[in-house]
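Hi R.,

Here's the chain you asked about this morning:
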Amino acid sequence: MFLLLLLLVDVLPVSTEGGEIIWGTEAKLHSHPYMAFIRYYDKKSKPKRCGGFLVEKDIVMTAAHCDGRNISITLGAHNIKEQNNTQFIPVHKSIPHESYSSAKMVNDIMLLKTIALPKRHNWVKPGQVCTLEVQESQTCQKLYKSYNNSTQLCVGNPKDKKATAGRFGGPFVCQGMAQGIVSQHHCTGDLPEVFTRISSFIPWIQKK
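And the predicted structure, written out as tokens:
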């Protein structure tokens, strides 16, 4: 097993107090310029939030279960409750994977094309950083019936670091490269969690 970094956008409701990640640490300013905060409305017109990250100037990658109506992206928010020096960008088109299944939570990956290109600024910042470890596939196979090691990653932490719900779609980064997308967690809130394995979807991404 090897250590990776999970980058989390501050996406908690306003009522949440204090740090969003138990035992987590706040990311350094300017350290991860690709983080994105996503807002949208679900089928019941309820406001939802997700994380994401820039993969091109006008394309953000996130989880397919973060699809909905009136999707918008905020860049440059170290704390989403403080709107200074942020870019608010409407989404022109959402492209969820054609084989995404909400029932099985497989192929949970989506691309968002923005209406306007984000400006290049050095102040674009991330939210929270939490050190986690990749676990053996058998661990997640026991917890998630549809877990598929060829397209998903099993990620946990021996010290039981936990992050609150709402940062789905954010990246799982190793040595500066995005390796996974936050996809699902166990109903009890226990780790490990499941991440979409980005490398398995490179051909699909290149076609889009």
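The longest helix spans residues 137-143.

Let me know if you need anything else.
M.
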